[in-house]
Amino acid sequence: MAVSAPQVETIPRRNALGLSTFVLASPFTDSDAIAFEYVRTLGYDVIEVCVEDPALLSAAFLQEQAAASGLAVGICGAFGPDRDLSHEDEFRRRSGIDYVKHCVDLAEAVGSPHVAGPMYSATGKTRMLTPTQRSDQRQWAAESIREVADYAGERGVALAIEPLNRFETDLVNTTEQALELLSLIGRDNVGLLIDTFHMNIEEKSIGDAIQLAGDRVFHVQVSENDRGTPGTGHVPWNEFFAALTAIDYRGQIVVESFLPTVVEIARAVSLWRPVAPSMEVLAEDGLLFLQQRLSPEVVPSGLPTTAT
Amino acid sequence: MFRYTYNTLVYGHEPIATGIERIARFGYQGVELVGEPADNDADQIAAALKDNGVVASSIISIFTPERDIVSSTPEIRRAAIDYLKGNIDYAAKLGADVVTFTPTACMKISPEVELAQEWEWAVVAAREAARYAADHDVTIAVEPWNRYETYLINRISQAAAFVDEVELPNIGVMADTFHMSVEERDIAEEIRRVGSRLVHVHLADSNRAAPGFGHTDFKPIVQAIADVGYQGWVSYELLPAAGDVWSVLSGGDAPEFLDPYTEAAITHTRNLERELGLV
Questions:
Q1: How does pLDDT run across B103-125, given as a tens digit for each residue?
Q2: A209 inside 8 A of chain B by CB
């Protein structure tokens, strides 16, 4: 379907729109140059690069591809068991801190405004803790992130912390809990990454949660309630976009989903079936949906109306 | 007018008679019981039900690594079927109508062998269970769980396909709105598609709290349940916001699930029934 690009561009959008490399390749490496051209051709402004294996991904490669494609690059972290910033073992916390600092270096090198992700813990820890253990874990998370925040601040980079649903972490599930962690951290360059998939499970009201976070929302990822194409399920999109407008959010909005064909990823996010006809369709329709919703006054007639 | 029941699972280690008394006090007609017949005295439960003027509605089966319908170990598959038959006996003894069925251990999120093989084991097991249940006038309800609790049947349409393949009159599809809020694009539409195959319903909000404490829009869902002519129980399986719900429950950290949610859940749905003109 032809979308009239000049028309869409007549009113500047307040948000750069991006696609996560999780939709394209995992792990994303220096051999995935083709992704940049692909994401640019689709019409996105940003490629959000998830740093799964730092040994396979270089700043030079990202800089080169960003320049060639004209895309902005966002940096997002992935937190396996060896990157646990709230682990009781100091040595383990240190590996986590070093990893996020490496992500900060990448962000600085490619001009990403932030490093985003659930950096307060290793993903997948869903244990029952005593209040004391929970408080210790929170303190360790805050200390570790504070150290990284100071490192990032010196490099002009912010940190965007992502709450995950109850099945992926026991530490920060809701916006409210994330805001508590932010006050423990006590640094202005630390804010939130909000993700509609997790919010659908955890927030009583997605709109209220966004308004509560206000200007601490540093980054946004969109995904449908089943991790499929935004606009095809029952995430309350009207409420979501109204809340982003209410807080005057001007950051990036990135479409995220995962490849059910990569076993490690499928296991990590428990995604066992295709959630869209193809990942290409998800990438294309996800962008179209965001463009429609963010510039409703310039949507040409005849575009499919989207479910809300 | 729906028949209402509340799942005692969330009451944790509280004496069962206390839970039954609470459920009756807030106007429910039924009590949904956890399928652990070995840990419970059926006679004592029957007496408590009678004392409080309520009946047993349904038995919730809990599948674990030791009783897993699709385990690659034959003894574990057999243990799961025997467990299920034990729940059917328990249901028959208490007069409950429904026993739930999910063909994997809870929280197991990857297959041990080819999915087609696991599906086949599940179909064979479901047939054995349903035939056994038929002799006891019990219905088997196949419950899809969200992706973090199982990989085999996540969606209502998958459960419907499974039930169609089993092809016995006393097995049907169960809808749990918490799982559906993660997995389905349109909950009400899926319920309509299941139609007369719907045999059990769990209402829980998007965050697994009582309806009204999350953001699920229950109006179209309740309308759809009524429209398909559903005659079964409307139950509430509410659980704490944790990956490890058992610990939260055994630790007594979920007081809102006692009186507050027990009262709020039935009140919320009854108000909708009135609002929609269903009563």
A1: 999 999 889 999 999 999 999 99
A2: no
Cα A39 from Cα A48, distance rounded (Å): 10
Considering A162, A168, A203, A284, which one is annotated as catalytic? A162
Q: Percent of chain B beyond pLDDT 90?
A: 91
Q: Do the chains contact at A127 and B109, CB–CB below 8 Å? A: no
pLDDT digits (tens, 9 = 90+) for A278-295: 899 999 999 999 999 997
Q: For residue A297, give both structure tokens.
A: 């006054």
Is B213 in contact with A204 (Cβ distance < 8 A)? yes
Tell me how far apart the alpha carbons of residues B96 and B50 are, in angstroms, rounded to a whole number: 13
The CA distance from A106 to the nearest CA of chain B, in Å, is 32
User: Cβ–Cβ of A204/B185 closer than 8 Å?
Assistant: no
Chain B CB contacts of A170 under 8 Å are: 242-244
Contacts of B187 in chain A (CB under 8 A): 234
- The pTM score is 0.93
Averaged pLDDT, B220-231: 98
Residue A295 near residue A245 (C-beta atoms within 8 A)? no
Distance from chain centroid for Cα A114:
10
- CB contacts under 8 A, A 155-194 vs B, are 165-168, 170, 173
Catalytic residue from among B118, B149, B183, B237: B237
B237 tagged catalytic: yes
CB contact under 8 A, A200 and B182: yes
Helical segments of chain A, H only: 5-9, 34-42, 59-69, 90-110, 131-153, 175-185, 196-202, 206-213, 237-246, 263-269, 279-294
In 3D space, the residue among B123, B154, B116, B152 whose CA is nearest the CA of residue B140 turns out to be B123
B8-43, pLDDT tens digit by residue?
999 988 899 999 999 999 999 999 999 999 999 999
Residue A280 among the catalytic residues: no
Mean pLDDT of B58-67: 97
Does residue A143 surpass a pLDDT of 50?
yes
CB contact under 8 A, B207 and A201: yes
| Contact flag B182-A225 (C-beta cutoff 8 Å) | yes
What pLDDT, in 10s, does the model give residues A215-247? Answer: 999 999 999 999 999 999 999 999 999 999 999
B151 close to A (CB below 8 A): yes
Q: Give the C-alpha distances (Å, rounded to integers) separating A83 from A25, A91, A100, A112, A237.
A: 21, 10, 8, 21, 33
CA nearest to B149, candidates B216, B242, B230, B78: B242
Our measurement of the distance from residue B145's CA atom to the centroid of its chain's CA atoms, rounded to an integer in Å, reads 10
| Residue A161 DSSP one-character state | E
Q: What is the ipTM of this complex?
A: 0.93
